[in-house]
Design brief:
Elements (H helix, E strand, L loop, with lengths): L5 E2 L6 E2 L3 E7 H8 L8 E3 L19 E9 L12 E8 L7 H4 L11 H5 L2 H18 L40 H5 L25 E3 L11 E4 L6 E5 L4 E6 L14 H6 L4 E4 L2 E4 L18
Parallel strand pairs: 7-8
Antiparallel strand pairs: 1-2, 3-6, 4-5, 5-6, 8-9, 9-10, 11-12
């Protein structure tokens, strides 16, 4: 047993309550283990069990410590300067692959719960991580800058403001009935340019647009069309003779998921398989192994 003291060797106060120093006899430890104790060995300390943990567990939480360092204790030398004691530095284990055999053991005899269910903080850490990601996606769903709520003023060739008025009886809020002049006067690009401002989910100034994997045949000057087979998706405008690129949907989700509509998700993180010489291989692996010529046999 040892008291836990504050570490004042650095700026601030540090409580190293997860580190223990344990002194053991050299001959006794070698006789018990059949070898010298070394870093990576795990020791259970029954006297540190927590019988009254702040949870609904009906069992005492066990304490396992991994050996981080082994040295000879200064007080363990005899009057002949022969060492008798080892001084071990111990730290609590965590839910890692190297401790699977221990954490997969039952929490107590006859119990269906494992030590991992009692000691691991994985579920709680994942809940915290998912909550942080969800809040980040709500605050900043896409990279770049959202300019959909910005408005631009139409101007004439001489730079003057192009004001358009209408009588109350002539107002038509429908997008289905648009005159040829209004179609021709649609903007050719967004009024704002900058870093990561392109978005494919709307046309400039909110004009109606179509989408698909090929351009429509019946077009008029000023039509917009979103090509969804481009990565990233690309918005085009028909100028009367050809389709001209307006912008790319370069604003993407900031979460590290395979749902990103970019080549990063479909090429770098490629999980597709192919059949090469009758063998199933991953497309992202080197093809040199799969394309090695086979040795001739009696049949061929």
């Amino acid at each position: 047993m040892q008291d836990i003291d504050f570490d004042l060797s650095q700026f601030g106060l540090f409580l190293s309550n997860d580190t223990l120093m344990l002194t053991i006899h050299i001959n006794s430890s070698v006789k018990t283990l059949g070898r010298k104790i070394m870093s990576g060995d795990v020791i259970e300390l029954p006297h540190l069990k927590d019988e009254y943990a702040l949870n609904d567990y009906s069992v005492a939480l066990k304490r396992f410590y991994v050996v981080e360092d082994v040295n000879r204790a200064a007080e363990g030398f005899s009057h002949t300067w022969y060492p008798h004691l080892y001084r071990l530095k111990l730290k609590q284990i965590y839910d890692g692959q190297e401790y699977n055999e221990i954490l997969d053991l039952p929490a107590e005899e006859g119990s269906n719960d494992t030590l991992r269910d009692m000691l691991s903080t994985y579920e709680k850490e994942m809940q915290i991580s998912n909550a942080v990601v969800a809040q980040a996606e709500a605050d900043a769903p896409k990279s770049g800058y959202d300019i959909s709520h910005y408005y631009t003023v139409s101007t004439n060739e001489d730079g003057s403001v192009d004001l358009q008025t209408a009588d109350d009886t002539d107002i038509d809020a429908s997008n289905l009935n648009i005159s040829a002049d209004e179609v021709a006067n649609r903007p050719e690009r967004e009024g704002y340019t900058g870093y990561l401002v392109g978005t494919g989910d709307s046309a400039p100034n909110g004009a109606p647009f179509g989408f698909g994997i090929q351009f429509p045949r019946n077009n008029v000057d000023g039509d917009y069309f979103l090509r969804t087979d481009f990565l990233p998706n690309r918005m085009f405008r028909y100028d009367g003779a050809r389709w001209v690129k307006v912008q790319d949907d370069i604003r993407m989700s900031l979460s590290n998921t395979l749902e990103r509509q970019t080549y990063k998700s479909s090429f770098i993180n490629n999980t597709k398989t192919s059949q090469i010489s009758g063998e199933t291989v991953q497309e992202r692996q080197s093809l040199s192994k799969a394309l090695k010529p086979k040795k001739p046999t009696a049949d061929n």
